[in-house]
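REVIEWER CHECKLIST
Item 1: Sequence provided? yes
Item 2: Single chain? yes
Item 3: Sequence as submitted:
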Amino acid sequence: MTARRRTTALIGDDNTVVAGGRTVTWRTLHKLPQLPSPAAVLVDNGADALAAVRHHAVHGTELLVATTSRVDLSMREELGESGFAVVIAKDDEHSVDPANLKRVEESGRVWLLTSGSTGRPTRVGHTLESLTTVTNQQRPRTWLLPYSPGTYAWWQVVTISLTQADQGLVVVEPSELETWPLIAAEHGVTAASGTPTFWRQTIYRDTDALAKVPLEQITLGGEPVDQAILDRLREIFPQARISWIYASSEVGASIVVHDGQAGFPREWLDGDGNRDRDPESERPVLAVEKDELVITSPHHGAGLDGAVRTGDRVEFVGDRVLITGRLDSDEINVGGSKVSAGVVRNVLMGHPGVAWARVFPRKAPLVGRMVAAEVVANPALGPITDADLVQWCSNRLPDYGVPRRIKFLDEIPQKETLKSDV
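Item 4: Structure as written out by the authors:
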């Protein structure tokens, strides 16, 4: 076993942490017993996840943290065969399944599980340093932490509080998601990060409660961000800074936009000739190849230096570059004419009566595929029909891009990662 090392200065050790009904600080979080290393710590609450992070920051333990629900038995066996002891952390009780393989630990290594949206989750290696992408001194804030422990977005919020002064945390457990605005208002949350689905669900459930949260910073990420949700949040919070971030476990936080517009400026794209510039540069290099976003990032995961094909499809609209969805699922071929599911989705969600939409291909005679959609209506604006939406889309899309089957759902679907299946 290699020598352990403290991985970072805990500047935020005295920041307030609200978790599990208790208000503590990073310093006074309940302590985990000395962890084996490497350790995969599986938790069912945010307090245990944060305790594992602080243990790592102090001792340098090679760590993977995730919820028990995201790691099934076969994955636990896979972790054990990869040299991880599997620690089940539950309040004051902890069980340890020793690793099935003895190997040298990578002191200071943090492992993240990808979202698994395109298949089985995989492990991506980082360090606290590579996960800490907000390094400029921040104004005092209290952050909402609604993300599933161990995801990249969760680490982004956690590292702000761990490495910056005056950055408190209010942890929201899955059972509290429906009423998080009440919790946030009670604890004076001024900054919140969530997926577009997370924000849509909150607006759909209780816009009035959301408006009472004193938000100064609103961040969106994890899914394609459309203009409709940015505009709706601006209506509710006219004084807040609204940002969207493109980030992933593989390339880290690579695009940050604060101008209130969907997409990013086309001028941010770099040509291939700039890919080999100074590797110490803090600015990611963005490029597009065959409609795919390609990123060279200083915040990349282990072994992913250089240009990384993200698998995300983009479209150019005027002087903006829009990220519309996954390359392998965004394009729908209707009788030889191709349309972006993301573009159709954005058109649907631009309708004032639509709270959420998903667009996908469906088998059809003659043309092979047609465009279909699932929609959640905005209850505040009265009933809408599929004919209303077909007419709306017909005025904004080519005929082959208009959804021909529309199903209305009663609520917005959301996964543990706060994403919907779009």
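Item 5: Key structural point noted by reviewer: Residues 196-211 form the longest helix (16 residues).
Item 6: Recommendation: ____
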